[in-house]
Amino acid sequence: MKKKLHAGKIIANILILSGAVISLFPFYWNASAAFKPVSEIFRYPPSFFPETFTIENFTRLTVYFPYFVRNIINSFVLAFIIPMISVLFNSMAGFAFAKYEFRGKRALFMAVLATMLLPTSSNYIPLFMEMTAFKLVDSYLAIILPGMAGAFGVFLFRQAMYAVPDELLEAARIDGAGHLLAYLRIALPMIRPMVTTVYISGFITAWNDYFWPFIILNTESKLTFPVALAGIQGQMFETPWGTIMVGALIITLPTLIIYITLSKYIVPDIFAGSVKG
Fold first, then answer.
1. Which of 8, 41, 171, 269 is the most exposed place for a label (fewest CB within 10 A)?
2. pTM
3. Does domain 65-231 match CATH 1.20.1250.20?
4. What is the torsion angle, in degrees rounded to the nearest 10, for the CA atoms of residue 29, residue 34, residue 39 and residue 42?
5. Distance CA 158, CA 249 (A)
């Protein structure tokens, strides 16, 4: 019996390791290609290590990206602000749906969830018309406002808020805390795992977002980095694949860093929250 369990554990570890290698290989290839000349990137059979190590792809960034630093800053600011606002509004809505009774609550929640059935692309035309009417085209508000709340975020926070004991909220109200204070001091700290998860997801989504910023932003200095990166194809009568690989590497790194930095707060706090409950 022990031999079977030992063999099963070895097979499971091999499968997990194989899955990790397969998942990480595209990132490795991207990082490797960033230090290769273009001729070596497209060589067949491919080389897994740079035979001719070069940093020319990095030095040419400013040639193809006149506003390279500004584009990076634009993406960072939006990716920082949008999920922060989203966490605030989604969690407030989830708190209301989970802890308060009011007329039409179920119908309103069903209407919110129904918006998840609509494909994202179907929203772009009415959203663009709305931003045009408010004269927000080519502004960052046109990107921030649509990301302030979403049905999936409301749903996640509503489920998380059910784990907050009603007795704690009632005790806070007896001590004189209002609805807002009970939400900020009692409910929100107890669902930190969900806050972290939604923030990470929101950061990744905002950082990688391409289509909507591509539609709504026109000024070159206001572009986000993914839009600016896509725009360098065909510049100067060529497609600088080496520089594109560098840009893809730059896009990937913040996502990995923020996940590695914040993921440690997810699992431990889930178990801590279950003990508190």
1. 8
2. 0.81
3. no
4. 30
5. 36
Instruction: List, in order, residues 6 or more apart from 170 with CB less than 8 Å away.
Output: none
Tell me: the pLDDT tens digits for 146-179? 988 889 999 999 999 998 888 888 888 888 888 8
> How far is it, in rounded angstroms, from Cα 54 to Cα 36?
6
DSSP 8-class letter at 51:
S
Kindly state the tokens that stand for 230: 């896509």
Distance CA 75, CA 104 (A): 39
Q: Tokens standing for 212?
A: 């909507």
User: How many Å apart are CA 120 and CA 205, to the nearest integer?
Assistant: 13
The token pair that represents 48 in the structure block: 């897994």
Go through the chain and tell me how many residues it has.
Answer: 277
Nearest Cα neighbor of 230 from 54, 75, 31 is 75
**69/239 Cα distance (integer angstroms):** 21
Structure tokens that stand for 58 in this block: 């990095």
Q: How many whole angstroms separate alpha carbon 219 and alpha carbon 138?
A: 7
Q: What would the DSSP string read from start to end of 178-193?
A: -HHHHIIIIIHHHTHH
Task: Please give the Cα distance from 28 to 21 (Å, whole number).
Answer: 10
DSSP state of 148: S
> Which of 60, 30, 69 lies closest to 48, judged by CA?
30
Q: Could you give the 3-state DSSP secondary structure of residue 103?
A: coil
CA distance 166 to 194: 19
CA 60, distance to chain mean position in Å, is 28
User: What is the Cα 84 distance to its own chain's centre?
Assistant: 11
SS3 67: coil
* Residue 81 pLDDT greater than 90, yes or no: yes
